[in-house]
Structure formats: structure tokens, C-alpha cells
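Suppose you are handed a protein chain with no further information: no name, no annotation, nothing but its sequence. What can you learn? This example shows the usual starting point.
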Amino acid sequence: MCNLFQDLYLYSMLDVIIIGAGPIGLACGIEAKKRGLNYLIIDKGTLVNSIYHYPMGMTFFSTSDKLEIGNIPFISHNAKPTRAEALEYYRRVASHWKLNINLYEEVDNINKQDGCYKLTTKKGKYSCSNLIIATGFYDRPYFLEVPGEELPKVKHYYSEPHPYFGMDLVVVGAANSAVDVALETYRKGAKSVTMIIREKEIGENVKYWVRPDILNRIREGSITAYFEARIERITTNEVYFNDINGHHNIENDFVLAMTGYEPNFEMLERIGVEFHQDEFKTPVYNTENMESNVKGVYLAGVVCGGYKTNKWFIENSRIHALQIIEAISKR
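A reasonable first move is to predict its three-dimensional structure. Written in C-alpha cells, the prediction is:
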């Protein structure tokens, strides 16, 4: 039992704290509110921070109905909504439900004491009996780990093509984000677009209506691609890399490293969450109620997949909110 009297004047006492104000974190907050639980959602960034950092012109894979939470209809102009439509929708959801959300408040520390989870941020101290981790993965890019990666020309996020007009670009990666970036910057006036790809070919998981486009652009030479290639170092004016044919260097203005992202494993490790001994570092949790091996700590959304960040999406992890809050309510 959580001792609600110790540090009473230092900590705000809550039934549940939800870390992450993405769609699944919001869904958990809605379910907690429906059951009368005392809850708080905390996020280090803005509302649905991951979606906010998507490219401005992005269109979702899913249809709008599969992105709905809280029984609020999501009406979009087309079957598959845009980033802008999604941001508008989730703002409307948060406002409609009057959710308790603290934005731009990063959790600095989590301690378990007397059955309570005590969280500290630069803005406050909080205590709860139950903790939901819904942090997603988009805030933590995979780094190239090569000399020169710290240069301002290297970007791990892509917003729009305009800044790259007339520039020599290197796009790193061969998954959906890299392919989209290469095609859009090429069509919006980049001087040159070169893809540096570790794999032998463009990923099979690339959107079926986009993959033929990028393959044709590579075949005709509009976009240059080096396969089985790795960057060695980056300088102000060049990129050095190698492939099966040896070492190369090309003139370059910007490197767009679309290398993917990973969950916040450190936060899970600090609170004692264990991981399966698999290649994806999958966290241990009960599939029926999403509780981890640590009592009172629940996992929701993309974070459940570990490195396999394409396993869970909004549409197939919305159910986590109901599973978790039902389990907490029964206690």
C-alpha cells in the first residue's frame, strides 16, 4: 500500500501518473477520468509530441477512424488524414475531455518508496500508486556515431523540403522516412540527392505505392543510391563513406539521417523493468493487463515493442488504455 502521508507536503498524491502525452497516453488519461481516478499526464514536449515532429506534409498509413480515441470522431478530408489534421484532432480530444496534462515537463527522476512511485521534475514533485509508461520512441534517434555528426548540417528530423532547395543532400536510410525525404527533396529542387544505404536494397516495407517511384528514380539516375554503404565521417563540405567498391567522398551541404528511433530504455531500466533476451530488447509485461514485472508499472503503446518499433501503432495499441485502467480500478 502506498504511504500517502509521508512527504505529504512535498508530493502531489495521485492514483496514476501517465508519462507521455501521445495518443495512447491521452487514451489512458481518458479511461482514468471515466473511472474517477486521480491522474496526471506528463510529457517533456508538446501535446502528441511525436506527431508534431513528423514531416509537415505527412499522411498517415491508417484511416482516420483507426486513430480515434475517447469516442471522439476523427473526420478528415481524405480517408488517410494528414499530420495537420491529426494535431487538430488530438487538441480537440484533450480539450473535450479536459484532461490533466503537464506539458514541457520532463521527468528527471523516479523512485519507489513505501509502495509509492515518486517522480521529480524541474517544476514539481508527484507521487502515485500506479505508473503508466507511454513514451513512444520518436524522441530518440539512432545516431550515426561518426566524426562530424555534431555539425549543424546533420539533421535527424525532417520537416519540409524548402530549406534544401539548391543544396547537395545525403539521405541516410532506406525505410519509409528516408524514401519520402529523398523523393520530396528531389522534386522540390534539391541540387542533388544521394542515398547512403546499409542494406542491399530499398526496404520491402516501404509503402507499396512509393517503392516503385524510388526504384525508378534510382534507375534513371535522378537520385543516386549507394547500397551496402556506411558513412565514415562528415565534414563541413563533404561526406566520406565506403561501400563494396571502396571509399568515396562527395560534396555535401546537408545530411538527413533518417536512421530510425528507439524507446527510452533508460527510464524503464531505472524503475526495474526487465527485458526478454531477444534481438528487440522487448520489455517484460503481462499481455492481459500490460503490467510489467514491476508491480504497479504498466506499459502502453509503441514502448512495448522494444526495438521493434513497427509492431505497435495507434490503431492496435489503443486497447492498452482500457486494459491498464481496468486492472488499476480493480485494485
